Amino acid sequence: MIASIGSFQQRAILKALTKKVGQPVGGEELMTALFGFRKVKPKYPRSVFQQTMADARQKIEEFGWTIVAKRAGRGGSVYRIIPTVAGAV
User: What is the average pLDDT across 48-62?
Assistant: First the structure.
């Protein structure tokens, strides 16, 4: 599924999430997956992350999956990728 979805950035986030299907993955871990390879980070990394996450969520919905977010302590968030229809796993 991942190889056929969206941009390189969307695939980086999805790869990190699918390593732990149904389990929480910290926002910082996903930001590292998204930007860790870059020598120069974007000026507004949080905004780029949020937009990339929204785009990835939209792309995977047609495959019967979604990404849910939950606020974690101290202003952070955790994300989980979960199936929305039976048989998507």
Answer: 93
